[in-house]
Design brief:
This protein has 137 residues and is of the alpha+beta class. It folds into 2 domains: 36 residues; 95 residues, N-terminal domain of TfIIb (Single Sheet). The chain has 1 helix and 5 strands; from the N terminus they run αβββββ. The protein has a 3-stranded antiparallel sheet, with no helix packed on it. Strands 1-5 form a two-stranded antiparallel sheet. A hairpin with a 4-residue loop joins β3 and β4. 9% of the residues are buried. The model has no long low-confidence stretch (mean pLDDT 92). InterPro entries: AspA/AstE_fam (IPR050178), Aste_AspA_hybrid_dom (IPR007036).
């Protein structure tokens, strides 16, 4: 599957549709070249590995008591370091990120995840290495 975004629910954006078409075309081009016997050299790519889903701060009645901090909003895939602002309580108190490593939040404040109790997802950068591949045909 391919998920390209961000895109609000029920909205079709031309720029996102164009990105989706390009990635699907690249995937189909790869399959065609592979099926024709092209050899692909070894490569290393950087990816983001999901580590943890993070909920909004809640009180004892399970009610949300803080919102995404303005400095974090719309910062998907950007580094979040120890001490950076994470949430803002309804009383104006800043809740900072407390972590032992830099993470890269994504799906920040996505409406589709409110019911799943997910404010964002913490990811880390990981390098993956692939050996050369070639069709055996």
């Amino acid at each position: 599957g391919v998920e390209v975004g961000p895109q609000p629910q029920g909205v079709v954006r031309a720029d996102i549709l164009d990105k989706m078409r390009k990635i699907v075309k690249h995937g189909l081009d790869f399959v065609q070249l592979f099926n024709e016997g092209k050899e692909f050299p070894p490569c290393t790519i950087e990816v983001f590995k999901i580590m943890e889903k993070v909920d909004y701060p809640r009180n004892k009645n399970d009610e949300v008591i803080a919102i995404i901090h303005p400095n974090l909003q719309d910062q998907d895939w950007q580094p979040l370091n120890n001490g950076d602002p994470l949430f803002l309580t309804l009383d104006g108190e800043v809740i900072a990120y407390k972590g032992d490593c830099t993470v890269y939040p994504t799906f920040i404040n996505e409406a589709a995840y409110y019911e799943k109790k997910q404010a964002f997802v913490k990811t880390v950068k990981v390098k993956l290495t692939a050996k050369h591949i070639r069709s055996s045909v």
